Amino acid sequence: MKRTSHLLAALFCGVCAIFLILDGKQVANGVVSGIRLCLETVIPALFCFMVLTGFLLQSGLYRLLSIPLAPISKHLLFLPPSLGSVVVLSLIGGFPMGAKSIAELLDQNRIDHDTAQRMLLYCFCAGPSFIITAVGAGMFGNAKLGVLLYLIQLFLSLIFAVILGLFARFSPRQNVLADLSPAQCPAPFLPMSQAFVVSVGQAVSSLAQMCGFIILFRAVSEILSGVLQSGAFSCAILGALEVTNGCMLASQLPFGAVYASCFLSFGGLSVIAQAAGILKNSKLSFKPFLLVRCLHAVCSGSITFFYLKAFPHTMEVFSSTAHPIPVSNPNTPILSICLLMMSGLFMLELSSVCRRL
How far apart are the C-alpha atoms of 41 and 92, rounded to whole Å? Predict the structure, then answer.
């Protein structure tokens, strides 16, 4: 069986190599499109937020931000009180932020495997700037649809978090709410100057890996778009591969908001591969993650469909009236100010170290 799978994989790679030789121009167009998406949308939207999140986790400041959320984390989500801010950041920072935060906490031995596995199932949400500005305003021509789609994603993620918390509450394990298990030896938090440097390096490394997956799946989508005919089936296939392309195609279909809602919930194989790459050393299982993504997509698509059926007058408002546009995160200036503040802290701490020397 294993030999057969290897043979099929080798044949598939051979076919791909032949296709790349015979139709390299179309593949090149997909690669260029992926690079443009990374430069114009992904990097501007995520880089500052990834640095900020990494700085909070490496320095331990995330625990201070979690203090107001401690009752919700402990009693509603059944998580250690210090993880409230991590959940919030994953729900507003975009698809990879949850996986990146979980990976860093696991590397530091600050959460156990079971807690990380549970958080992975719901700390996965497209950022509000992407859904509202890029999908709602840019692709469907109305930001109100973007707000609706984001609220549906956020609502379902929180519902899943509460349900999974109820299951964990009845777990036979006694240390579910503990920040650390007895067998763990957590890594010490870094000084703010070191945390800033490490967070920038980690953000660059994570973004490079993410952009690689985006470019690859963009090239695959370009190939399939030349083979598949336009329509709902083509939209479903391409949306399952890459969420941005799927939402663009959905904006041209009747009830396209339903398709877009499903794509945003599932995330696309491109985003899932990005999360798998970030968590490659974590030993977390992706089978329950994929199952929850499919269930999340079905639920979000159903809610969107019944909403549009209940309020049919909104269909005209949600029709596509604009061309897709590349959008960066409008919160980037705010995050840039945060980076400047961290740079100031870095310089202050560096000067104090130099004085001691």
Answer: 16
The pLDDT value given to residue 255: 84
Q: Count other C-beta atoms under 10 Å from residue 310's C-beta.
A: 8
Across residues 291-299, what is the average pLDDT? 95
CA-nearest of 79, 82, 89, 173 to 124 is: 89
Instruction: Give 23's contacts (C-beta < 8 A, 6+ positions apart).
Output: 223, 226
The domain segmentation of the chain, as residue ranges, is 27-356
* Mean pLDDT of all residues in 150-168: 93
Who contacts 276 (Cβ-Cβ below 8 Å, separation ≥6)?
Answer: 286
Nearest to 65 by CA among 76, 77, 52, 56: 56
Query: What's this model's pTM, rounded to 2 decimal places?
Result: 0.80
Q: Give the Cα separation of 305 and 312 in Å (integer).
A: 10
Range among 36-50, 125-139, 290-304 with highest mean pLDDT value: 290-304
* Contact status, residue 206 vs residue 50, Cβ threshold 8 Å: yes
CA distances from 190 to 47, 109, 163, 300 (A): 21, 14, 35, 40
